[in-house]
Amino acid sequence: MSDREIDHQLVLRAQRGDKLAFELLVNKYERKLQRLLSRLVRDPAEVEDVTQEAFIKAYRALPTFRGESAFYTWLYRIGINTAKNYLTAQGRKAPATVDIDPEDAEAASENELARDSSTPEQEMMSRQVAETVNAAMDALPEELRSAIMLREIEGMSYDEIAAIMNCPIGTVRSRIFRAREAIAEQLRPLLGTHKDRRW
Amino acid sequence: MKDVSALMDGELERRRVRSTISRLEGQDELRDAWATFHVIRDALQGNAVGSSRFIEKFHERLEQEPLSVVPRWRAGLPRARAMALAGVAVLLVAGMFAWMSPGERVPPATFVDAGLSDSVAIEYAMAHRQLVPAFVAGPPAHVPAAPGTGATAGSAR
């Protein structure tokens, strides 16, 4: 089942009244959407509020989502409109450079977007997370590091990774999971665990 | 947790997706893994992590929201199928109204074949042409001339 189909499954659950399913989507896309919207709303303190508002609007509009486009493409449109409305209400104008085709949102948000703005606290958090992830990556055995890099950075499927690493798909699945687990173990003190988080 | 990892990559077998999502929703540890694995992904892809309290704040807001629910029968129904179903429903209702509307029902017209061939029929008509003046002008164009009458189809007399 593809990534898009997984999103659709979560949307279907949310449409049936399952708020947790929607939170799983928020968990997945919060950083991507924040990064995107930080191009419109420059003030870092406002970016988070606008992103929260965009997710709430998306939740309210869920009954109208029919899965004809990818969930993120739909969310992207809502995010852009929310940010533009916010700026208009403030008597400000959105930068013209943000008019990216929604269909290109995935690629644009990953590759082309300018540096996002963030508060000093967010910047420090980001730096700490990045350093921890990099250190954990360096400490990984070679086969685990290669597997997760091929997946997360090169965006390859398990099939493609299996062909490159010359091993069965099950081994790829296991290596990627073990890599994530090892990195997560180092990150948990920084992020907190479910005991500290409220869902 | 291995299934959560495969799920977020879109690489989990179809038959295990639903049960994994259900477990994901039911177990704090799995949700924690889902969240942390996505942070790792974003960090590796260069997305800033931002506030660690984002989801907590969102959770509080979402709690205040009324359920945003789609009727169960419509959830997941593609637009084309939904429109086709709506069309069928309209036809059914229209059919019901037509069937139930008052008024005399006229039986459908039936065509009785007298068993006469075209030539016999024309001979009969020619023999009685004084009684059927309209036919005197000649038989309809598609009717062949009756043998022995010397008439050509459609010719005026």
In short:
The complex is a heterodimer of chains A (199) and B (157). Chain A is mainly α and 199 residues long.
End-to-end CA span of chain A: 26 Å
Oligomer: heterodimer
Low-confidence stretches of chain A: 108-115
Extended strand count of chain B: 0
Q: Tell me the number of strands of chain A.
A: 0
Secondary-structure-derived class of chain A: mainly alpha
**SSE topology string of chain B:** HHHHHHH
CATH topology of the largest domain in chain A: Rna Polymerase Sigma Factor, Chain: A
Low-confidence stretches of chain B: 133-157
Biggest sheet features of chain A? none
Question: What string gives the helices and strands of chain A in order?
Answer: HHHHHHHHH
Estimate the helix proportion of chain A, in percent. Answer: 55-70%
Q: What is the beta-strand fraction of chain B? A: under 5%
Mean pLDDT of chain B: 70
Number of helical stretches of at least 4 residues of chain A: 9
- Tell me, what's the shape of chain A? globular
What would your notes on this structure say?
The complex is a heterodimer of chains A (199) and B (157). Chain A is an all-alpha fold and 199 residues long. Chain A has 2 domains: 3-112, RNA polymerase sigma factor, region 2, helix turn helix motif (Rna Polymerase Sigma Factor, Chain: A); 120-191, Winged helix-like DNA-binding domain superfamily/Winged helix DNA-binding domain (Arc Repressor Mutant, subunit A, Orthogonal Bundle). Helices cover 69% and strands 0% of the residues of chain A. The relative contact order of chain A is 0.09. Chain B has 157 residues and is mostly helical. Among the domains of chain B are: 2-64; 115-150. Helices cover 54% and strands 0% of the residues of chain B. Chain B contains 7 helices and no strands. The longest helix of chain B has 22 residues, at 79-100. Mean pLDDT of chain B is 70; it is low at 133-157. Classes of the chains: A mainly alpha (199), B mainly alpha (157).
